[in-house]
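User: Predict the structure for this protein chain, please.
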Amino acid sequence: MSHDTASGRTSENSPRWDLAAETITVRIRWFGLCVGYALVNVLGRDMHNQPAMNAILTLGAVYALLDTIWSIRGKVFLSDAPLIVAVMEAVFIGLLCYFDQGAESPFRFYYFLSLLVFALRYSRGLTFSTFALHSLSFATLVLVSRARDVDGDGMQLAAGSVESLILMLIFMGWVTWAGTSLGGLLQSAGGRLRQLNEELTENQALLEQRIAARTKELQESQAQLVQQEKHAAFGLLAAGIAHEVGNPLAAISSLVQMLNRRPTDEYTREKLSMVDDQLRRIQRTLRELVDFSRPATTQKSKCDIHEIIDAALNIAKYYKRKKGKKVATRYATGLPLLRGARDQLVQILLNLILNAMDATDEGGTIEISTQLRNGAIEVAIRDDGHGISAADQQRIFQPYFTTKETGTGLGLFVCRSIIEQAGEGRIELRESSPAGTTFVVYVTCDMVREHPDVLESAGVRTEVTAP
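Assistant: Here is the predicted structure, written as structure tokens:
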């Protein structure tokens, strides 16, 4: 709450100028009271009305105490009635002067302090209104003082009293003018400083937002770089293994073929055929490993989503966590071809499949289904694992966030970045509960086969892979 300099009232949204000036005005009041008590009780002046003056000063001290308490609470005492405050101060100063030495009392200078307080605290109009009240108070004091001191010849103001009244009014007017000018200058400076502070705060907030955005971009770039480096290192390792293992396999395969050409009994020929089949299986595994580890191409081509899912499953079957888990596929028939980067789509689906395997206990099932909806192919990957907590669901796509003990927190982030940057679709978490979790990949398709209405009514091909 603050003071409105135009009306003297407080408001919630107006500048806090009154509270800034409150410290000064409260100190001025206490200064005047201390001087007053010193004049009445310490300086040893000859006073016949000392008890009455102490009582008046005590009333002023009570008011100053209330003003101080309101100031500490961030408010202005009697802020809604400034003219009442002006009347009270005019009466207060007039009574002090009356019980002391009349118009010649040192307490008449309190009028100046009161005007200064109003100039700092209130508007120009209220300050000049206070000047009018104080002028009336002092003029009344002069008249009453002369009536009290005059002889029985009549009540006539002496020339000195008129001069004293005029000079006092001139000085009060000057203090009013100077105080309002000073208050206006301070208010203007305070308003300008407040404006600059608001601009500085806005710029600081904007700078913090930019820093946060740049930091996020840097983290995402770093995460993608780390993932690319891991993939490249894995590719080099796979290529080295394929080379080192491939050469002996080729030699063994040649020896088996040479033995098959020679006359042998049926038992030996059967065993050699089994060896040759296992060699082919090893070679096929090496090819799949090399194909997956080679640098992914971003060149777009027409491809089948089911072939991409099968390729990801062929790689996932070597994952140690697949043991004891079933994979059920429900493929919609007659889906259109995709136009995208096949290697990137394999990487995305493989990551989601491996995550589902990590979340599924032994004996559990991972379901993969496809369908066409609104011109895009939906690939849903569901597991019957423990689910993701509500708090973690908001963070799963952030870089370096993971719920796995040995995870890097880059898989989902990199997958989402790849598919969104390529403009090929999006990934979202459809649902997650203690009963399981479902991720959905939406991929834009190339409508080259049939009209979407026909496609969406196509059948479903179901297949379950045993553990």
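The chain has three domains: 2-205, 225-292, 297-465.
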